[in-house]
Amino acid sequence: MRLTPAQRLVLYYMAFETVYHGRAWFTFEDIRAGTGLAVRTLRAALVALRSQGFVESFMVPGMGKKMLHRLRLEKILPEPELQGLYLVDYSGEKLTPDAISVISRAEVVLYTENVPVKKLEGLAKRLKPFKGEIPQASSVAVVFNSLLDWDKVAPLAAKARYICASSALDKAVGICLTCGEVDIDLKTIRIKTPGPDLANLLDKYELVGTLTVQGCGGGKAELAVLRKRS
Fold first, then answer.
1. Is the pLDDT confidence value at 63 over 50?
2. Comparing C-alpha atoms, which of 19, 144, 127 is closest to residue 90?
3. Does pTM surpass 0.85?
């Protein structure tokens, strides 16, 4: 399907903001400021993208004709149907592309009380609080905060795939956490060292030791292993 340059620009902008900044909803003004398109050009591009299924638009109650727009990421990056149980570790401020992919494709998304649920509302198909039980569904994602919620989700670890959703942790470790070649113990927190936040972390965590791990791309990272002070 052919897209005009304006339509492609809108998709590129919305995809970048969704994947790298965890943004789910956009106003018309947001998109216009981000793309630099003229009002008439942008309006025509959004109408076309909606008709082709790339964008969804919703009227904001009580705001006149003001609308919010959302990118249907699965239309741009089609992936196989999701199957199984996923533990999505959301202990940072932003969602990684892997986490967004799982959350947006899972049949049911559960969340613990320490997860910012507002960040999930624009992505999940069905969103429910996690109460210890997994519903019958082809795919379930449990979004939790590994710093605060590990005890609640630990019984699920043996049968779930672990997805690191924190961009901060991904950047700190600098390696692939989901390829199966790196063994991450969720009972400890491992941050690349040295780093500007290490001193603050040591106020609440004790340094257990260091280790070097290698990811699937061959890159190595020197990690500090920290354990929360009792």
1. yes
2. 144
3. no
